[in-house]
Amino acid sequence: MSAEESIRQLHAGLSDMFDMVDEQLADTVNALVTADRSLAEAVRARDKQVDAMERDHDAQCFRILNSSQPQDKQLRMVIAALRISSHLERIGDLCKNVCKATPRLDDHTGWRSDTYIMDLADAARRIVRAARDAFAGRDRLKARLVLAYDRQVDRAYRETLATLEAKRPVGDSGAGTLLYLATISKALERIADHAKSIARCVVYFVEGTDIRYAHSQGSTNSVRS
Question: What CA–CA distance (Å, rounded) separates 143 from 195?
Fold first, then answer.
């Protein structure tokens, strides 16, 4: 099999993993909205499939490196794909964490209207789908837009923390609920961070520019195509 054909298969396999993780996140948010225990449990059970996809995907990357001798942009795709699969696996883990906490909120329905968590959840879904679209189209401009979308997530996260801080109980009553809400909020914020990292990987394999540390270095490192 040629290196080009191997890269096409790699891209297709990673697209499948994206679809699986996107479904996990959609079900996670739906379980959160509806307090659906069975849906939350289904998300947790499917996490093993995401883990298996990461292992299979990484094995495929190593086979390409060992046998196909990819060059330039093909090599960047393999490197980026290894990073992306890791970020997708972490998103799957975070979905599982949210679903672990979701059933604990059954008796506290007021949190949906009293906090910004659902805004945060919707923003996390949008940024993951934007990262998926950038990857599917190998679109560096869409990928860079994801970095801007992350600011919306950060704002929703800050607003959520502020509402939780305002609801802090004097005694132990309600403290457990706030802890679960804080855990869910942080998981959603981290999901968006992984989507942002995926977008940076897309920029890297499309144009050869590593923008992971551009904010701290004041410049970017480029690789010639």
Answer: 10
Alpha carbon distance 155, 126 (integer Å): 14
Q: Between the CA atoms of 32, 155, 91 and 195, what dihedral angle is there, to the nearest 10 degrees?
A: 140
Q: Which amino acid is at 79?
A: I
Tell me what the mean pLDDT of segment 60-70 comes to. Answer: 83
User: pLDDT tens for residues 128-147?
Assistant: 999 999 999 999 899 989 98
Return d(Cα 35, Cα 28) in angstroms, integer: 10
Torsion of CA 216, 90, 56, 71, to 10 degrees: -10
Task: Give the number of C-alpha atoms closer than 13 A to the C-alpha of residue 145, restricted to the C-beta side.
Answer: 14
- Rounded distance between C-alpha atoms, residue 177 and residue 160, angstroms: 14
Percentage of residues in the chain having pLDDT higher than 90: 53
Kindly report the pTM of this predicted structure. Answer: 0.87
Q: Which domains does the chain have, with CATH numbers?
A: 3-222 (1.20.58.220)
| 3-state SS, one letter per residue, for 166-214 | HCCCCCCCCHHHHHHHHHHHHHHHHHHHHHHHHHHHHHHHHHCEECCCH
